[in-house]
Design goal:
CATH topology of the largest domain: Fumarase C, Chain A, domain 2
Shape: elongated
Enzyme class: lyase
Helix content: 55-70%
Oligomer: single chain
Low-confidence stretches: none
Strand order of the largest sheet: 4-6-7
Radius of gyration: 26 Å
Number of helices: 20
Order of helices and strands: EHEHHEHHEEHEEHHHHHHHHEEHHHHHH
Catalytic activity: L-histidine = trans-urocanate + NH4(+)
CATH class of the largest domain: Mainly Alpha
Mean pLDDT: 94
Distance between the termini: 24 Å
Number of domains: 2
Structural class: mainly alpha
Number of strands: 9
Strand content: 5-15%
CATH architecture of the largest domain: Up-down Bundle
Pathway: Amino-acid degradation; L-histidine degradation into L-glutamate; N-formimidoyl-L-glutamate from L-histidine: step 1/3
EC number: 4.3.1.3
Family: Belongs to the PAL/histidase family.
């Protein structure tokens, strides 16, 4: 059970929650602020002054006053009418992260929900009741309205949820877990669906996956460098300190350590007439390092958003209830676009390293397509083509989403962020990148093995040893698709990074 302190949760805690599907609850110290804001909303609901979403309609209908007797109906109708999501459901782990983010937002004590709402979300996380939340339907502006409505629907006994691996009605899932639906009070439906938690959860998952790929790219890039007998001189510390970018300095250091002790490199320090290696080898610290800096910057944005209050209206510290625009997900949209750019570039330079290794005109003595008896065998020819296809697809997907907007809700919501689009595409992009890096690992290992009896470094030798437990060295041609899938999984679960002993933090 993870205890979350709103305003102080770290990226490491959020990644742990996502990867382990751990239960989560708010720190007990949040109870007082939550109760105080709930009391203020309850008072406003009975008052004469119009307060948006408390005793009025929503969006373009905010001028319509709602009688206090209709408060529960207003909030229930809001949830049901907003359950308009379409497409495949979010993975369970991502939905649970989204629910934890909603807890963090409500836990700041500015949303006006009762403790019962908090307790039910905590109970659903503890007992494994996960709402079925469709991926499509949010424009990332008035909050992620449709996706979050599907979460809230289960809380009122509607919609669908997954419990113990079975998809069933929300009310049945709650009952099976020993939980009961709630009747929503004033503003509670609005507080649940108004916010950026859907977009932020998807962007965080994209960030975590991108960082895993980046760490692997440092390892596979070092393997490629040794496979083509590339120079380690471009990783010298002074080169990178003269430029000063932190990510570049860190990647160069990691590569020096990974390649330290390689007999392959030492064997051709003398008599090698190459003056410079191609950019895909020589500029790895500059490109991968820049991606590292960008991912870290996006991470700072997303951890701020994860700890933020993003619904509307808000109960401020002086007791006033004020409408604002914290639900607008522009920061998340920008962060998602930055992650997409980094993912595309990591894959682009990795794909060029693969192309280098399979090309006998450029690979410094490696056989064509890294296969014995080339001609009879095609080797890794089409594996390289697959990486080219995925690299190109990621380039297309990296086009910014944040520059798009379209007016919605009868022009009341006339500028939107498209953060949900930007964050949702990261899952496909990081999967594509994991395949590219998996193929690079196969090519790099094959190339290093062709350098026998010269040995690679101890770090890379361990990496290849672990890789070979899952994928055998390629001799004669064989059915390759399962090997590519195994290599992808070794990237996604950080197996190669662990084997190499690499330590690069987000």
């Amino acid at each position: 059970m993870l205890t979350l302190m709103p305003g102080e949760v770290t990226l490491e805690q959020l990644e742990n929650l996502w990867r382990t599907s751990a239960a989560a609850r708010l720190d007990p110290s949040t109870a007082s602020a939550i109760a105080t804001s709930a009391a203020r909303i309850a008072s406003a609901a009975k008052g004469e002054d119009a307060v948006y979403g408390v005793n009025t309609g929503f969006g373009k209908l905010s001028s319509v006053r709602i009688a206090s007797d209709d408060t529960a109906t207003l909030q229930r109708n809001l949830i049901l009418s907003h359950c308009c999501g379409v497409g495949d459901p979010l993975p369970v782990e991502t939905t649970r992260l989204m629910m934890a983010l909603k807890l963090l937002s409500l836990g700041r004590g500015a949303s006006g929900v009762r403790p019962e709402i908090i307790a039910l979300i905590e109970g659903m996380l503890e007992h494994g009741v996960t709402p079925v939340v469709p991926e499509q339907g949010s424009v990332g502006a008035s909050g992620d309205l449709a996706p979050l409505a599907h979460m809230a629907a289960v809380m009122i006994g509607e919609g669908e949820a997954v419990f113990e691996g079975q998809r069933q009605s929300g009310v049945d899932a709650l009952a099976a877990a020993g939980l009961s639906p709630v009747m929503l009070g004033a503003k509670e439906g609005l507080a649940l669906i108004n916010g950026t938690q859907f977009s932020t959860a998807l962007a965080l998952v994209g960030l975590f996956s991108a960082m895993t790929c980046l760490r692997t790219a440092i390892v596979t890039g070092a393997m490629s460098t040794d496979a083509i007998m590339g120079s380690t001189a471009p990783t010298r510390a002074e080169i990178h300190s003269l430029r000063g970018h932190a990510g570049q300095i860190e990647v160069a250091k990691a590569m020096r350590e990974l390649l330290d002790g390689s007999e392959i490199r030492e064997s051709h320090r003398e008599g090698d007439d190459r003056v410079q290696d191609p950019y895909c080898i020589r500029c790895q610290p500059q490109v991968t390092g820049a991606a590292l800096d960008l991912l870290r910057f996006a991470g700072q944005t997303l951890v701020t958003e994860a700890n933020a209050v993003t619904d509307n209206p808000l109960v401020l510290s002086d007791g006033t209830i004020v409408s604002g625009g914290n639900f607008h997900a522009e920061p998340v949209a920008f962060a998602a676009d930055q992650i997409a750019l980094a993912v595309a570039e990591i894959g682009a330079i990795a794909q060029r390293r693969i192309a280098l290794m399979v090309d006998p005109a450029l690979s410094f003595g490696l056989p064509p397509f890294l296969t014995p008896q080339a001609g009879l065998n095609s080797g890794l020819m089409i594996a390289e083509v697959t990486t080219a296809a995925l690299m190109s697809e990621n380039k297309h997907l990296a086009a910014p989403c944040s520059v798009d907007s379209t007016p919605t809700s009868a022009n009341q919501e006339d500028h939107v962020s498209m953060a949900a689009h930007g964050a949702r595409r990261l899952g496909l992009m990081t999967r594509n990148l994991a395949v590219i890096l998996g193929v690079e690992a196969l090519c790099g290992a094959q190339g290093i093995e062709f350098r026998t009896p010269l040995a690679t470094s101890a770090s890379l030798a361990r990496t290849i040893e672990v890789l070979r437990r899952h994928v055998e060295t390629m001799g004669a041609d064989r059915y390759l698709a399962p090997d590519l899938e195994k290599a992808r999984k070794l990237v996604e679960d950080s197996t190669l990074v662990t084997a190499a002993g690499l330590g690069v933090a987000v």
